[in-house]
Every structure is written in C-alpha cells, then in structure tokens.
Amino acid sequence: MLCIVAMKFRSAFAVTFLLCFAIKRSHADIFAWTYTTDLTTKGETEFEQWVTSRSQKEHGNYEVVDFRDELEYGVTENFQLALYLNHRYVYANNEVPAEDPAHPGKRLPSGYETGGEDVRAGHNPATPFDSYRFDSVSLEAIYRLLNPNKHPVGLALYFEPTIGDQQRELEWKVIVEKHWFEDRLVWALNINYGLEFERTDPDNELDGVLEWFTGAS
Predict the structure, then answer these.
(1) CA-to-CA distance for 158 and 189, rounded, in angstroms?
(2) Tell me, what's the pLDDT at 27?
(3) What is the domain count for the chain?
C-alpha cells in the first residue's frame, strides 16, 4: 500500500499533506480519501457510515466525533447517486487560551476557556460545551465516462452539493483510474475543486479549495 498525498491550495497558497490509509468498502473501493471509478451495481442499494474522531488539544478536554451516513444507489451501469446525512457530537472544556481583557484580540499566556470553531457562538466560555447536532445533507452524483476494465484508463465525473443550516458547499471531482498487471496494481487520481459559503462569515465570502489526492494499491 502506497501513501496517499493531498495538496491543498487556499488563498494564501498553503500546502498541506495528508497521509491516508486504505479501507475496503462493500463495492471494492480501496482508498479512504481517493475515489475510484468503481460504482454500485445497477439497481442495488448500499448503506455505509463514516465515523471520524478529533480529540485532544494542548490544554483542557476536546472531543469531536463526525458522523456521515451514506445511502448509495446504482441508477445505471455508469451512474450512481448517494445521499449523505452529516451530524456530529462535540465536547469541549477549557481548551483554548482566554482572551486578555486588557488587550482585546490577544490571548493570555496562561488561563483557558471553552471556545473554538466547533463551539456554538454565544456559548459561555466559563462552562463546558456538550452538544450533538445535525449539520447538513449532501447529494452525490458520479458519472463514469470510461471503465478501466474495458478501456486503457478509467474516467469519471463527480458532483456533490451540501446544504446545511450554517453552510453551503459545492464540490467537483475528476476521477482517473489505471490498472496494471492484470488488476493486481490499481492507481487512482482525484482532482477536486470545492466552494464553501458559511452563513457565520460577516463578509459572506466564498472559500475556494483546489486539491488532489492519489493512491496506489
């Protein structure tokens, strides 16, 4: 199993590398973060649940568990639809530096409070934050143009809109797949572009992300 590398470009052109691990899905997907052109069989339905945990900061207690419930359906041999329900559990307590009352905008070198992007705005920072909430609904559509089992290379197009109370997202992917050595070696490449609009942003700005993921197994 080779590592999967992702390169993400934001407005500041920051570069982030992610190391991912392969998993086995019910219709033979072999990467955690890289899509292949393999689709759900026509007329079949599949259910999957993704659970991602983020925990521990330098100070205090912090735990976020993201849930993503997925229902897939094979519309045709080359077209797949999926519905996602996105929800999360958050617990945080004294995990961020407290603001210095004498210098607004600055943080104290000691002394901590409850806050951060996962904590609801308006929460009392002197008390723990413990919450479960429903975030959003996503609809995923994948259309396969070329099947790697029938052509020299596989090619598919992906589109996913997400609608939630606090944000709206649009994501596009170009999925490329190549097989070697009678399918014993599979390589995949995803080129992704996403737009995100957050209602909590006072400037109502769109955040665009261009990234790529690749893997071989």
Answers:
(1) 13
(2) 56
(3) 1
